[in-house]
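Deliverable D4.2, example record:
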Amino acid sequence: MRISATDIITDFHRESVDAVIRYGSGNYPDLHSELLLQEDHLFPVCSPVLLEGPHPLTRPSDLAHHTLLHDDLRVDWETWLAAADVKGIDSKKGLSFNDSSMVLSAAMAGQGVALGRSTLAAEDLKAGRLVKPFDIELKAGSAYYFVCPKEFINRPQIMAFRDWLFEEAENDPGRFMYVPES
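Output generated by the structure prediction step:
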């Protein structure tokens, strides 16, 4: 098995790739697509260090004093700031990364505030490497899908990988999902 992480859409006819996990809508014409993990919410996350100091994050307007960290979906910050009724912050400014795990790593290092996705931020929130400074969350519009060409789905090695992947997600959903405390 070879695992490759990329933000480039796989062309199954040109590349020697059998299956992928895609973050999106699940609507992939001419491909087999199955919901693997539902992304529940989007919310700001940061290092616990940013809750202290000269400009502690205590309310959403405090983001004006901090660097916004972006993945390729910059529109999410604009939407979150509007939902939090925060004005005067340029949602496009800050550091940008093409990989969501790099965004979370920068947040853990105290380089700014990221807009975390419930599934990706779960482990770091549980471990205390990240904190959620505000209660305002957005409902996520995308999810993670297992995708392969329709003619590949019945291949034994593809089914074995698919079954293993779904079993891992089902047996330990806490590993994949952030569940807010009540």
